[in-house]
Amino acid sequence: MNFVYVDKEPVLIKALDYLSSGDVWFIDTETTPKDIRLFQVGLENGPIYVVDFFFVKRAPELIKDIIAKKGVVGHNLKYDLKYLMKYDIHPYTTFDTMIGAQLIGLNRFSLASVYNYFTGESIDKKEQFSNWSSKELTESQIFYAAKDVEVLRLLYEKLKNELNKEPTIVEILQKSRVAKVFGLESAHAIIEMGFVQELAKIEHTGIGIDTKEIEAMKKQLQRKTQELAMNFYIKYRIDISSPKKVGEFLENHLNILLPRTDKDNIITDDSVLAEYLDSENEKAKDVISSVLEFRKLHKLQEKLSEILEYNENNRVHPEFWQIGAVTGRMSSSRPNVQNIPRDLRSILKAKDGYVFVIADFSQIELRIAAEYVKDEIMIDIINKGEDLHKFTASLITGKSLEDITKEERQRAKAANFGLIYGISEKSLSLYARNSYGVDMSIEEAKRFREVFFSTFQGIKAWHERIKKELKAKGEIRVKTLGGKPMIAYTFTDAANYPIQGTGAELLKLSVLIFSQELKRAFPSIFHEVANVVNLVHDEIVVEAKENYKEEVSKLLEKSMIKAGSILLNNVKVEAEIVINDRWVK
Fold first, then answer.
1. CATH class in words for 324-362+500-580
2. Do residues 81 and 320 touch, judged by C-beta distance below 8 A?
3. Sequence spans of domains, the chain
4. What pLDDT digit, counting tens, does each position of 230-241 carry?
5. What is the mean pLDDT of the chain?
6. DSSP code, position 563
7. What is the largest CA-CA distance in the chain?
């Protein structure tokens, strides 16, 4: 392996003159807790340069302008990009071999695992956690650093070839930076690779929290929880926090028959207990509602504690898994800012002089489903701008759209979102109550199913095709509208994967477009005007300077609608915008 350790500025200047000739840089970093120690870089062939930032003090300054015109390839590139952002270094575009490995369906996607998958060989990673702060690095450390770049070269070619098999071509995305620099063809891969840098920015920027409000909420919740637990004990003489004792009490004293595990333990999960809230046994209803309320309050306290744990100067910097599920949906941790209950969202606060521009797609899963299966009636209703939930409610009630009540619309909303995935009558009844706060009997749920599938024949035919293929083959291959391939083994997954997967692509594409629109509108100050700070399935939260909030709001809405028009050819997409200094709609 040909590599050069660079610890003097003249050597770096000469190296950068050579590296400038290539459009694609293969990069990696070795870091201390706060800084980059080594920056490894090479072209597709030729020497690998291991640049020591501790000795070449002007290295970031010298690299910055050149890398801004280069595509970079790395593994778990988000990590490297966040460190580079500390030096105000931003590459032109990105290709992450870890994301590539996930996109082709690998379950293990560390650098060593992906290398082993393609070559059958192993990589020695023992230097990974060595002391990168030491004044003099060992030859072994420097060799290790260079080796990762050599491995990247091989993985890049292998993964690019895999990703370009049977591509889903979206013409406008062929003009993107990712497509032009790396030669990627399939829409889903172009979106995911471009999004790597945007997600690094989101983590780097973080989101503001109101620590005083969090502390006040915690105290209030603690008082409520203690009071509820005490009153429950006085009333029933059992510990409300013990699932075992609650289960035994319900079975032995209230004659509630609960399911059991394989080891004969009573199951008292929230979803199980919620089924008995309609019980005619008033005492059982009181016990169950108290237990569920206690657990809810306890979970809220845990969430507040989690957020405070990661507080850095009244801001948290969560980690996002770009592909956190098989569908491509993201997940979040340290802290998880995607699962904050609506009751607590006011604790997330824009910094002084800024506001949150909060945007979400309107009825997006229904719109994607309508596009995906080409359901003509659903497409027609959506494109005419009619309320699909009121339409469904009117079919059930026989009322005109204008006369549909809020509760009737809410029931229909539960039915629409549940039935596109073929939910059963019983599950729909529970879903309506737990997710939308409305009662729906099994008979009503059955009626909704009958009317829904007799009206939306495209959805019905799609479900029948899934069942037929699963019965014949035991599995079914599905794709998102962006072309992400997945294999499903159950009906639920087969119906869910392409819809939620397309939703994930749509959200990421919206962020990519918004980033470009923002740079066009505010070329020299875009990073001061607005930054995306959170993403939740169909929602984008942007922190915008207060005096630019209207312009940012329009740019964000425009970007989301444009993304919709790229992935959905037949169905209009709408975005709803709210501006607030808290994450509250």
1. alpha beta
2. no
3. 3-163, 211-309, 324-362+500-580, 376-455
4. 999 999 999 999
5. 96
6. H
7. 84
